[in-house]
Amino acid sequence: MNKSGNQGGPLLLGIDLGTSRTMILSNRGARASVRSVVGYPKDIIGVKLMHHAHMIGEEALKRQSYLDIHYPLEDGVLKEANDQAAEAAKLLIEHAISLANPQPGDQVYGVLGVPARASMFNKNQLLKITQEVLDLSMVVSEPFMAAYAIDQLNNSIIIDIGAGTTDICAMKGTIPGVDEQVTSFKAGNYIDLVLENLIRENYPAVQMTNNLARKIKEQYAFVGESKEDIVVTLRVAGKPGSYNLTREVKTACETIVTEIVEQLQSLIMVFDPEDQEEALTNIFLTGGGSRIRGVEALIMEGMKEYGPVQVRQVPDPDFCGGLGALKLAMELPPKYWEQVGQVSNKAAK
Prior knowledge:
alpha+beta, 12 helices, Nucleotidyltransferase, domain 5, 36% helix
């Protein structure tokens, strides 16, 4: 029994740090998500209204009229190093860890996911923060975590469509190297921006915000053919009206698919020729963007010249990366963590 009174050793966490949402799971059964947002009061009235120095997650978004909203994980990694960005990131990570209900005296170990091509600088900045809040932490690429979760570690391709980035990773039975991973910044946030601009362009009188465009995307996102029109209530000069946004949603969502197909066409070349056919039938989609209706079929259509292609959504795409991180933390003894990713140890501080 450890000093916290819990049997089974340290509290192990799998944490998928996302631009839009952060997912956390533990070896003791915790499973939670939080919007990757930190809000600070704009002035003394905001302090009075919220009774706190800051607010995190969905609660912050609900009060954004009187809060300064910060997304500390821009494009899935920490923003350029400055005190406020680092503080917001630390508050977010601390909050995520608290959702796993650590007990007094617990040793807390965490595996954290970052975009496939995150720079060494960003990984080191993240580890500096986690060293303050975790006893042992490791950062690994998000698509690798998803591959680990579903036991697709050889001759497979993982496509992780998040908010800030789309990561594609070729799994060849080893820890993926730089040439076997690609990151694109055309992802969920990019779709939001395109959709917002299309609505503004086609319906200039409509009151439109990026947050409203995101909500429309999250409810209606599709590519290819739609079975029914997307009719949404929007406001002009404060008055509600119905608007058909089928064309706008389709166009915005399809903007990321062309680049995914181009990257797949390039990445398949890293496999040996005799393995390429198998890899093309083992393409898996994860992340929130994998829920875009029709995206599997459109990717397969773009790859049809390469022979048989199979694209499937992973089970539980929102939590798949976090599940892989937790599975890795539970199966790999800490002494081997440095062979997999960058590691920070509080004891070495």
